[in-house]
Specification:
Layout: H1 10-16, H2 24-35, E1 58-65, E2 68-75, E3 83-88, H3 95-108, E4 110-115, H4 129-143, E5 154-159, H5 163-172, E6 179-183, H6 189-195, H7 201-207, H8 214-217, E7 225-231, H9 239-248, E8 252-258, H10 265-268, H11 270-282
Parallel strand pairs: 3-4, 3-5, 5-6, 6-7, 7-8
Antiparallel strand pairs: 1-2, 2-4
């Protein structure tokens, strides 16, 4: 469900097989080719099909954006605490997949809302940086108006590549949320691509856009609480990215260094994780 990337990616492979790109003319052609292409779709994986959610009470909430329909999943606790969590997923899967990460929260009494990106789960459309931002921003603006949950304190919870979007949303809705929890976060799409393509760093920077990098937007947050969770063992998003985001933040903040695989703290340290949620809502 979480990100899996191969060290030998497109850029590294391309460069290793094309040592003959020596002349200025050929280099120019290469630059034009790369810069004219959009690679933002590579950060989204729409292959996972939507699965029936059986382990918890839930409902689907649909929205309209332009000419396509967008889906979101609301997980409903049996004994509610009147606390609302907005889960912004990482790469791959959809709301039915990511709902598994939220089961322990729902059992504690939290409502958890998961928007499906365009082209993911039951949402229509195509996923790229622009369409995902537009769609989720629209859905979030609408869900915040729901009278039934309007008075609930709210926290954004995100994983991995979802960090860029989540920080952007937190910036846009800072007055309406209590906090932001980032698990295994990244600093920007570009930084992630570079970390897996050191040999092709120059070309990656030309090819990959970061229209709303977390490392730029996180400094604007002033009045919410930030919890950054990152494993020292993370092989997907190096812990230096989590520390960089934490250092750039100007709000009340906490850094929890854990261990284990990428974004596995919720499964490895469930009880302590839930206590951190409680602190965000209670303090």
């Amino acid at each position: 469900m979480f990100i899996t990337m191969k060290k030998k990616d497109f850029f590294s492979s391309f460069l290793s097989k094309n040592h003959c790109l020596r002349t200025f003319g050929m280099m120019s052609i290469m630059i034009i080719f790369i810069t004219s292409c959009s690679f933002s779709e590579n950060f989204y994986d729409t292959e996972s099909t939507y699965k029936t959610v059986e382990s918890v009470k839930h409902e689907s909430i649909y929205f309209r954006k332009d000419d396509y329909r967008l889906h979101s999943l609301l997980l409903i606790p049996e004994t509610p605490l009147n606390r609302f969590v907005i889960l912004i997923q990482g790469k791959g899967g959809n709301s039915s997949d990511w709902s598994k990460s939220a089961i322990s929260l729902v059992e504690e009494g939290y409502h958890v809302w998961l928007p499906d990106y365009p082209g993911h789960g039951l949402s229509e459309g195509t996923a790229n940086h622009s369409t995902v931002l537009d769609a989720v921003s629209h859905m979030m603006a609408e869900i915040l108006k729901y009278r039934e949950y309007e008075s609930f304190p709210k926290v954004i919870w995100t994983f991995s590549l979802g960090t860029n979007l989540a920080v952007k949303l937190a910036k846009e809705h800072e007055k309406e949320i209590e906090g932001l929890i980032i698990d295994g976060g990244c600093t920007s799409f570009e930084d992630v691509a570079v970390s897996f393509s050191e040999a092709g760093k120059f070309w990656v920077k030309l090819a990959v856009s970061s229209p709303y990098p977390a490392k730029t937007n996180i400094g604007y947050l002033k009045d919410i609480k930030l919890l950054s969770i990152h494993s020292k063992d993370d092989k997907v998003m190096p812990i230096r990215m989590g520390r960089e985001l934490y250092n750039l933040a100007n709000c009340e903040k906490t850094f929890w260094e854990t261990d284990g695989a990428h974004c596995e703290a919720i499964n490895l340290y469930t009880e302590f994780y839930l206590k951190q949620f409680d602190k965000i809502f209670s303090d």
